[in-house]
Design goal:
43% helix, globular
């Protein structure tokens, strides 16, 4: 198994829960800076309803002004209409679709049940493949939910198997939507899903700073090699609950890579500069 980490930077996830609108030019400046840092992918925006996520209503304008880069662009969609629009943009190579293992959250997030969403997912997968692009499924609530509904690692593991086997999904991100993952649940879920699923399984973890490194270490030791993060640990899902639990801090993923893999991907000076620019962009 490769030791290398594959990193996706997720400023879209960081921005979406901020109530004060970030000026379009400010977003463009920050995203273009991130495109110079050498990430594998950049989750830059979302083709969703302006009413649902008003912060991302300018995704189309932002995309038009992004610089060329080796970093590949990923956009989130919540339905076929969003996918159809995202697929018209040549620069977008990855389409992300949130698919919850929890029916309450799927209804809240996309307005459709799990079974209805499977129909949508199948259609998006076919359209994405037809254009030689890739669909990434974010398996929301993979580590638990705030609705007191049943959870165990067998539920997301079985669903990931179904998505891979029946729908041909080649990449699934286990998403800790509300920051409920523990080292124990991370180990159980990744060991089970990576041993049974035919697709790449990555980690989209939400976490506080104090236990973030432990979660990274556990996921890595359990075989995970693809991670999402956001500088400063900003973000979270505004559709999940009232308290936003931040994303996995990118600076800690980079520190883990340097300490444990002896790989310096971004200089300390660039990290400090990016954290400052992130803070300015997010109006902190």
């Amino acid at each position: 198994m490769s030791r290398e980490l594959y990193l996706t930077e997720c400023p879209r996830d960081a921005m979406q829960g901020i109530a004060t609108f970030i000026p379009t030019e400010q977003k463009i400046q920050y995203l273009n800076h991130l495109l110079t840092l050498g990430f594998d992918r950049l989750d830059f925006g979302s083709f969703v309803s302006e009413k649902a996520i008003p912060q991302l209503k300018d995704t189309r304008q932002v995309l038009d002004q992004l610089s060329q880069s080796q970093t590949k662009l990923l956009a989130i969609v919540a339905n076929e209409r969003g996918a159809d629009e995202a697929l018209t943009h040549e620069r977008i190579e990855f389409i992300g679709y949130p698919f919850s293992i929890n029916n309450t959250f799927q209804l809240r997030n996309t307005g459709k049940s799990i079974e209805e969403s499977l129909v949508v997912l199948e259609s998006i997968q076919k359209k994405t493949e037809a254009q030689n692009k890739k669909l990434v499924v974010y398996l929301s609530m993979a580590f638990g939910n705030p609705y007191n509904e049943i959870w165990n690692e067998e539920i997301p593991t079985a669903l990931s198997q179904r998505l891979a086997n029946e729908f041909g999904i080649s990449e699934i991100m286990m998403s800790d939507t509300i920051g409920s993952a523990t080292p124990e649940s991370i180990q159980q879920l990744f060991k089970a899903s990576l041993s049974l699923s035919k697709c790449t399984v990555g980690a989209h973890l939400h976490s506080r700073f104090d236990n973030a490194m432990e979660k990274i270490q556990t996921a890595y030791d359990s075989g995970c090699r693809r991670f999402d993060g956001a500088f400063g640990g900003l973000g979270g899902c505004p559709m999940a609950n009232d308290e936003l639990v931040g994303n996995m801090p990118t600076e800690l993923l980079l520190l883990f890579s340097e300490i444990h893999l002896n790989e310096t991907r971004i200089s300390s000076e660039s990290i400090a500069q990016t954290l400052q620019l992130s803070s300015q962009t997010m109006n902190r």
